[in-house]
# Entry
Amino acid sequence: MKRIGILTAGGDTPAMNATIQGAVVRANQLKVEIFGLIKGFNCLFNPRAPHVHLNPLYQEIPEIDPTKGGTMIGSSRDFVDPDKKAELDMVASRLKKLGIEGLICVGGDGTLNGLQPLAERLPTVLAPKTIDNDLGMNYPSEPGEWVRVKDSDARTGYRYEHRDSQAVFDLEYVVNYVTPGYATAVFVSAGGVERIRTTAESHRRIAIIEVMGRHSGYIALGSAYGRPDIILLPEHPLDLEHLVERVKHLYDLQKNVVIVCGEGIVDEQGRELGAETKTTDPAGNIALSGAAEALRHKFIQMIGDRYFQLYRRGNSAREAIFTRKVGHTQRGGRPILFDRFYAAQLGAKAVELLLEGQNNAVAILQYSSAKGFYVQGYDANRFRDRWGYIHARRMHPSLYDPKLMKPSRVGIDYLLPIFTDAIGDDDMEHIRRTLFAQGNLAQPYHSINTDINKRIRYLEEEEPAAI
Ligand code: F6P
# Structure
């Protein structure tokens, strides 16, 4: 292979540029040209296929910076639809015109689904990214536990249900233990939780902090490092009576309560609290927002004003209970050391997989207590259920203690290898040196997009079809 392409798809993460850099460094060593495709699959739906040569003369361009969040080549939620054969042919023919012989997609479970039909046209591999940490499997046999049920309300006419597991859960069998992006998202969320605590303490308030993750509770679980009193996860339906009892107990004791909830939490009937007004993004994912606010309304009704007035800790439940979203701050900014380091390794591994002649493969990050973290290639077909669909990983129930509403012992054991040394000295030094730098006040922000724009090249316009 002489030339490969790389694109970044789906929601950005802080570690995508580190993945790009890892891929470019390895491509330089192997004397392979690497083109960055602008704005994910959107590049290939555009007849001009905007792209950037990332390593002219096998040297990385100076804009590549693994410590910068987001993605220098842009991302979008566009995806290739396996049922649209003509669209697939067009995408493949544009890649061919660019001289691209193999493609690396930096993406999550949605991208991996989209990559399947493309891999029938040219060698394609996935380098994982997601802050949600939902790309992977709890154990290799998990895809076989999904069943498909007809459902006229579902977009595809079917919904999938996860049957009870036949496997013993063991951290050493997790496929793709953790994905770059997750550690930085937890770093931001846990920091946010710590900060909210002192204001909740001072003003005798109950804080509900919503974190991202869609239907996966990993970010909420990791925010345990910020020491909230209660963590609520999408994988465990709410037990409102138990929850309110626990909130009151804590409030009586310490006059403040800090609760973290995943944006995808569900009630006893399995209905998402944050999806009362259902909207979807272009890839068909339900846009979740408002779980914390919905929970606050339930608390206001169930706890009531009298409870707060009785102890003179506020005039009303409305005043005493407040919500905050960590929001997109958990997805942006500088990646912490853990993410940078492993993102780069996964990018490099993706290049190696292509050059070894692998197709439809995923570079994954594995963990074992004997070896620590290591990267390896994994056949994407093994992620698919019997209908060919790749599901987002749900956090295994054993990582959480629903009574304590905190990580279980297994959950703590899961988090420790990721986070114990996740922050580098340079991460702290970076804040010290740059946040209050004089130039921040005097000079405007210089966007990477301006520099990349100057490097973008285009395919020549396609000839209009003869009539
Ligand atoms: O998948 C990543 C993610 O950040 C989710 O956690 C969140 O639900 C979603 O993307 C938000 O998407 P958008 O940035 O398009 O609002």
About this structure: The radius of gyration is 23 Å. The pocket of 6-O-phosphono-beta-D-fructofuranose is lined by residues 11, 130-132, 212-214, 263, 281, 288, 331 (CB under 6 Å). The mean pLDDT is 94.
